[in-house]
Write a structure and sequence with these properties.
Radius of gyration: 20 Å
Number of helices: 13
Shape: globular
Largest sheet: 2 strands, antiparallel
Number of strands: 2
Oligomer: single chain
Helix content: over 70%
CATH architecture: Orthogonal Bundle
CATH class: Mainly Alpha
Strand order of the largest sheet: 1-2
Mean pLDDT: 87
Low-confidence stretches: none
Order of helices and strands: HHHHHHHHHHHHEEH
CATH topology: ABC transporter involved in vitamin B12 uptake, BtuC
Strand content: under 5%
């Protein structure tokens, strides 16, 4: 029974840790697309931020300054996207895809030139990473019956970024649905002409939303290399940005529902890790490839099943042209 509780606790703890970058990117997508700007470039911004954080951490920057650097890189890419789509009314999908391609190629090239390790960065020391907040307390309560493993794995072994992300979910809901900024942001994604007629700058609101999305993507990328892993590897985001988009659509552009969908993805990923090498009665060993594909299969299913039925903001993807 104790072993069963340990397995449950480890899966739940892993679910929360794995879901963090998904939640952050899903929130980024919610803010950007609620303002009417399509952001398929979540993947690229997260990848670039992960590379920036790994580079800064590898040369000895402390964790928080390295995270700030990751956020700055992602925010810069977000501003490029905003400049192309809002200022110059370019195609939002093309701009987003371009960011993904640029980030995927540039991180590999710079990694090869700077570190000569096949695109990888050197390992990041513990002093430059976000470590578990209370590891000693987790070890102390691990042996308690039933509640011990849950408390250790589910609470005490997480780093500060996990709890910041948990707090950001209700904070994002409050910002979108309980503040004047949130009301205006949602309005500009539904009827920008009405917002403009009220004397509010449509462009400024959209710029703010896209920049906020860039900050959240930067935090997601920084988490990957400063907390979840200890170095950068080419393509390490592995489609997480697209999974976050699927969660956002499944959650109907609502922060709380999108976060729940991200937890589902995280749970599947945690279970997939646990099932590797497990022999099931009557079926034999579960193929590793099948297990690793589970989160991506769910992404396709959610997009195919809910994209047509989910009601997106009415002005999503439409450049606003002020009537004269």
């Amino acid at each position: 029974m104790t072993d069963d509780w340990l397995i449950v606790a480890s899966v739940l703890g892993a679910t929360l840790r794995i879901a963090v970058p998904l939640v952050l990117c899903a929130l980024a997508g919610v803010f950007s697309e609620r303002a009417g700007v399509i952001d398929i470039g979540l993947e690229g911004k997260m990848l670039a931020a992960a590379f920036a954080a790994a580079c800064l951490g590898a040369i000895g920057w402390p964790a928080w300054p390295a995270m700030a650097g990751a956020i700055a890189v992602s925010a810069l890419l977000a501003l490029v996207h905003a400049w192309a789509c809002i200022t110059h009314r370019g195609d939002q999908i093309v701009s987003s895809v371009a960011l993904n391609v640029i980030a995927a190629g540039l991180t590999v090239v710079l990694g090869l030139v700077w570190f000569h390790q096949g695109g990888r960065t050197p390992n990041i020391g513990d002093a430059s990473r976000f470590m578990a907040l209370f590891p000693d307390a987790a070890g102390a309560v691990q042996g308690w019956p039933v509640i011990g493993p849950l408390l250790a794995e589910g609470v005490l072994r997480h780093n500060v970024l996990v709890w910041v992300t948990v707090a950001l979910v209700p904070a994002s809901w409050w910002l979108l649905y309980r503040t004047r900024f949130g009301l205006r942001l949602r309005a500009v994604g539904e009827n920008p002409a009405m917002v403009d007629a009220a004397g509010i700058s449509v462009g400024a609101l959209r710029y703010g939303a896209v920049l906020l999305a860039g900050v959240l993507c930067g935090a997601a990328g920084g988490y990957l290399t400063l907390a979840q892993n200890a170095s950068f590897t080419p393509g390490m985001t592995a489609g997480r940005g697209f999974m976050a988009l699927a969660a956002m659509v499944f959650g109907k552009w609502h922060p709380l529902r999108a976060a729940v969908a991200c937890l589902l993805f995280g749970f599947l990923d945690a279970v997939a890790i646990r099932l590797q090498g497990v022999v099931l009665p009557g079926l034999g060993s579960v193929p590793v490839e099948l297990i690793q594909a589970l989160p991506y299969v769910l992404t396709v299913v959610l997009l195919a099943g809910f994209f047509g039925r989910a009601e997106a903001p009415k002005a999503l993807g439409r450049a606003y042209v002020k009537e004269r």
